[in-house]
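Holo prediction. Input below; ligand is zinc ion.
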Amino acid sequence: MKENALREALVMFGESLYARGYAHGSSGNLSVRFSDGLLITPTNSCLGRLDPARIAKVSPDGSHLSGDAPSKEAFLHLAMYQARPAAQGIVHLHCTHCVALSCLAHGSPEDVLPPVTAYYVMRIRRLPLIPYYRPGDRALAEAVREKATQHHAVLLANHGPVVAGRSLEDAVYNAEEMEESAKLFFLLQGQRARFLDSAQIADLDKHFPS
Ligand SMILES: [Zn+2]
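Structure of the complex:
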């Protein structure tokens, strides 16, 4: 896609996520990989009201090249892109059910959302939890980079998800699937829920290899 089309796609998906309550206030940020850098939503911008001309362009090392100042969370995107060369789009949200999930005490941080549906398994598969870091702490980038070599989706404790995709659209759909799956998980609390078993997951892996 050409740069202008990518800018328009960032605006369109931002507006859509905001309109449906996946983002609020100035929370959340979206990016696409572009030639030798990335286009990312500006700092303090509302995803519902992005201006394509003001979207920030940054180099692979995070230097600001043009547009408004990039999101203060751009370093999360850079870390994920560095760990995953095939990733073309990244979505980071503070969406309610994922944040709620990120605040629970989990027995194992390796996979914190059970396989509620085949669609969740096909899009996310496993969701590791990354420990809490204060906003802006660069140590978080290292933690994300380390987990992202094995996972295209991670959950930041008491914060929210960072999700990559083969395109911006794919990353958005992955993030939406994760948020809806977290919502289902909470709807099922206190009920006799049955999640997919290991044979069913192996069958999905066979028929829908990632
Ligand atoms: Zn955030």
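The longest strand covers residues 29-34. That is the main takeaway for now.
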